[in-house]
Amino acid sequence: MDGFYGYKYGRMRFWEILPGSLVWSTFFLGVALSFFAPVYVVVFIIVFDLYWFFRVAYFVIFLFVAWIAVRRAGKVDWAARVREVAGSDRVHHLVFLPTYKEELPVIRSTFRSFLSAHASHERMIVVLAGEERDAVRFRKNAAAIEREFGHRFKKIIVTEHPQGLPDEIPGKGSNLAWAGRRVAEVLEAEFPDVKDEDVVVSAFDVDTVVHPQYFAYLTYLYRTVPNPTRTSYQPVALFSNTIWTAPAPVRIAAFGTTFWLMGELARPERLWTFSSHSMPWVMLKDVGFWQRDIVSEDSRIFLQAFVHYHGDYRVTPMYLPVSMDTVAGKTYLESLKALYKQQRRWAWGVEHLPAMVAAFSREKRIPFSKKFRYLFNHLEGMYTWATAPLLIFLLGQLPLALVRDPDALIQAAPFTLQQIMQLAMAGVFVSGILSLTLLPPRPKTVKGWAWLVMIAQWMLLPVTFIAFGALPAIDAQTRFLLGRYLGFNVTKKGR
């Protein structure tokens, strides 16, 4: 099919323009009306801050629910429990590890985490998917991995994605799509007795370190949830492999992403797949594998399945973590630049809006209520991502400085906004406390007083919220508005 249900960049300009135009209209009107009708802007800011307060309040509730679920799941012996489930001994794990310019120690640590997992490695197939653009480094690394780990798994499959293929964006999605098709041929030729419905796929970033119980827990879910081939499986994504040595803004952004995802896990009706996650092999073959010409392949694969199965597809929460590296650079400034580009790439998920409109307009069997919910949640999420930090911390102060209305409501506005923000900051306090419970053990090379820094860093939240939240989102949506489409940016990482 040409694009996703006929949609490719530039073919539905109204829906590409809409998110960015809403954001810039809000800023333009907010500034202009602050001079000509500041009372209306003050009222809007008060209403918006109240909305944000209630949003923070229910976010904290769902975050705490998910945190409790994570603590409980971590205490369960899933390896023992899964042995009691019929058919679990037939489940095979197919793990994709796309890599580009990653060094051998990073790849090796991921393979070692697989060996440390409570899983039957003789039923695990690992795919190391490299790029022709990085052929010399990749081939050297792949040969080392096969020598060290080849005999420890059912099979290690090495694929190399050619460069310059038509109708592709160089990146993770096109690499996975190429690898998926090659792996399908290998499975059919070498393992004809392995049924498609007995294979569950995990698409991981190459620096992903899995929880020791991850594959046992995944097997248990795959054999016990209703209709297991109609759901993906989303774990908690931690970015904590290098958290102790990362700059403070990077740490705050990393925990912010984790907490956002945990809040979504507690509301699975809103949940999309994100970053490292798992899914049925049956689904991947049904939808034709990952889309090759987009940036946000981790969430698009969910949309592909949702549309293909006429809305009968969902995401099942996994309350165990997988851990990845934080972004890194050779210097503090390079780390911040890498963080900005990572957040902008994630904000490029705005590209799903016109794709959903195109698919939903053709797919008549998906209930209207589901279509509306997904479209609204996506548009509202992108809008508040880009606007909320600036409205709360900066733009909201302008009309208060300009208004000269004697009305009691206006006179009380600064006090009202201050009280609302103080209540909303309770979310920061909760996030700071919970972040300490998710930290890995402190390396011996890190001083003990680093714990104090881990607490004090949350004072930087307003700055981080703007610089590495709103601004990358505005950047992404403005590029989409102008038709300056973003390519795949590989996150810089280092150890």
From TrEMBL:
Gene3D superfamilies: Spore Coat Polysaccharide Biosynthesis Protein SpsA, Chain A
Annotated coiled-coil segments of the chain: none
UniProt key word Transmembrane: yes
Chain segments annotated as transmembrane: 21-46, 52-70, 382-400, 420-439, 451-474
Highest taxon listed in the record's lineage: Bacteria
UniProt keyword annotations, A-Z: Membrane, Transmembrane, Transmembrane helix
InterPro entries: Glyco_trans_2-like (IPR001173), Nucleotide-diphossugar_trans (IPR029044)
Domain Glycosyltransferase 2-like as annotated: residue spans: 205-453
Protein name: Glycosyltransferase 2-like domain-containing protein
Organism field: Candidatus Uhrbacteria bacterium RIFCSPHIGHO2_01_FULL_63_20
Lineage of source species: Bacteria, Candidatus Uhriibacteriota
